[in-house]
Amino acid sequence: EVQLQASGGGLVQAGGSLRLSCAASGFTFDDYTIGWFRQAPGKEREGVSYISLSDGGTYPASSVKGRFTISSDNAKNTVYLQMNSLKPEDTAVYYCAADLTYGLGYSPEPDEYEYWGRGTQVTVSS
After folding, report:
1. Which pLDDT tens digit goes with each residue over 11-30?
2. Collapsing DSSP states into helix, strand and coil, what is residue 86?
3. CA angle at residue 95 from 21 to 32, to 5 degrees?
4. Across-strand partners of 33?
């Protein structure tokens, strides 16, 4: 079965960094787009950044452009989210999700993503 597991969250001070990992199994890795999403208490689920695993194309949300970098190690079936210059408003549970796109495009819409990991908590103190 398709499984995704996000890890690497933790508690950091504003301005600090974390690297999240999304370990995937059970599917043909490069047929998919992987998206990172986050949800803070009382807020809607928000797209953070996306990567096409067929060619490595990346699509960050404007809110994290220049601070967060998404990347993949296809040999390890793992996607990373390097988060720098963290702000308190980045505090959320971060999820990775997979959308079957065959490298033909991506969607920022959470409802398009078929598979979800359980998420990892990121807390940024002020």
Report:
1. 999 999 999 999 999 888 88
2. coil
3. 75
4. 52, 99
CB 59 within 8 A of CB 108: yes
- Give pLDDT tens digits for 44-63: 999 999 999 988 899 999 99
Asked whether 125 and 87 are in contact (CB, 8 A), the reply is no
Angle, CA 68 vertex, CA 63 and CA 73 arms, to 5°? 140
Structure token digits, residue 15: 């301005």
- The single-letter code of the amino acid at 4 is L
Q: Hey, what are 8's tokens?
A: 């690497």
Residue type, 21: S
**Phi and psi at residue 50, to the nearest 5°:** -140, 150
Which residues are bridge partners to 13 per DSSP? 125
Is 89 strand, coil or helix?
helix
